[in-house]
Design brief:
By secondary structure, the chain is mostly beta strands. Helices cover 3% and strands 29% of the residues. The two termini are 29 Å apart.
């Protein structure tokens, strides 16, 4: 039979409390046979908003998970009202390859999540509700990256 060992960090001076819930049911926790970081079980973690500049087509964020997340992504967030978009509105960015020479790719590794936009000046632009391309996307939006631990 395997043993269970709780080990404190020798550099720390705090107290960690493991508390059972108020339940009358038996609960089982099964640990995988691999290293696991339980630090972010509550939901996704994300980067700060990154400025889109005309000379940078690749944006990356070091997620700190120590493994490649299964779920990750990028979004554009409105920073200045534009057309039907108001400050704080978000649009998901998806990997695409378009016939007009524009594309975007989102990827993840064991250390980073990244998004790259093809073509100088970010020609891969979302459409507003009129079907028109949004001009000067870097003026009105910033990009954010996220990962689900």
């Amino acid at each position: 039979m395997a043993t269970i060992k709780l080990q404190g960090n020798s550099s720390g001076s705090g107290t960690v409390v493991l508390t059972a819930p108020n339940t009358n049911s038996t609960r089982t926790i099964t640990l995988p046979d691999q290293d696991v970081n339980l630090g972010n079980l509550g939901g996704p973690i994300g980067s700060s908003l990154l400025t889109i500049s005309s000379d940078t087509q690749v944006h990356t964020w070091s997620h700190g998970l120590g493994y490649t997340p299964l779920s990750f992504g990028a979004y554009l967030q409105c920073i200045t009202t534009y057309g039907t978009f108001t400050v704080g509105d978000r649009m998901m960015v998806h990997t695409t390859m378009d016939d007009d020479g524009t594309s975007q790719t989102i990827w993840a590794s064991s250390t980073q999540v990244g998004v790259s936009f093809r073509s100088m000046g970010y020609t891969t632009q979302p459409r507003n509700n009129t079907g028109q391309y949004i001009r000067d996307i870097r003026t009105y939006f910033k990009v954010g990256l996220w990962a689900m631990p």
